[in-house]
Fold F-box protein.
Amino acid sequence: MKRCKKLKSESRAMKRCKKLKSESPAMKRCTKLESELPDCIISYIFSKFGLKDLVKTSALSKRWIHEWGLRTDLNFDLHTMFDYNTIQDLPNTLPLFQRFHFQSQFATRLDQFMLHYKGAIIRSIRVNFPLGNEHRDAIDRLISKGIAKGVKHIELLLSSETNDTIDSIPPYKFPLTLLSDFDSLTYMHLQNCFLLEPLDFSGFKNLRTLVLHLVDVNQKLLQSLCSNCSHLADFTLDDCQFTSNVIINSPTLLRLNIVNCGVKRGDNGEVKIPEYITIIIIASNLSSFEYSCHKLFLVHLMNIQAPMLSKFSFRGMEFSKPVGFSVLKNVTKITLDRPLI
């Protein structure tokens, strides 16, 4: 009898808890919101939420669990994952180990979000946070899930906005094999990544725009990219380190930007090894080419074979050796600029 009374008492307590929960002001407001607003308005409201807020609201309504899964453009940064807008907003008083803790926490939240993401389609993925190779498992899983759901636009901006020590972590090693035989990607922007070159890579068949920023570039990598990007129209190399002579050979390329680069001088003013790295451009349909180098750096030796080139922009201090302009017969606009010292 005592056991039966105890069970009945616990049952009544559970009913009262459920009743209180259902009658809580927050739950009542959610029910009212669901009944009064059409689906399109609720979806629009959810589209304005940060990812952390989307997950929190799913606890208020069973229906809303599915709403945040409808987000097709996934943007992971300090604003959407924490309560800061930029790296500079982090408290300056934080010890360095706590700042590194932000990186681990960011990677964990990103991983958990993708683990519970139930959307059928992902249109774009953008990560804007200084993650390194120690977080490669979370980044790899993010990319793999995006590929499985037909992602078309990928941005991995993994460099800090400051010169802090937090930026000294080893760069993320991006295995291009993740994208092998994957044809839906049309735009990719990689920052502070180390590209692992597979021997049998085949991908990027529909890639039209490629931006490499703070990436080490050699001829083997460029040859693999150019041969696989059969529809590449826009190509940007921003602040990239050339480790060898390079040839950019692409018949589909329309716009090429090689910016914020250059040949470093030694302390005595001499050119550092490798000396006078040459950039050869073979692009039969190239219409626009922009080149700029850092202040006090020397311009690369260049050989440009682009008969359709109509717009050429150059910014630099001086030429290390003559630049091959002899074939630029159709150029209608040339901009030459010298940066201020």
About this structure: The chain has two domains: 21-70, 71-337. Residues 304 and 325 are 6 Å apart (CA to CA). The radius of gyration is 26 Å. The chain has nine helices and 17 strands.
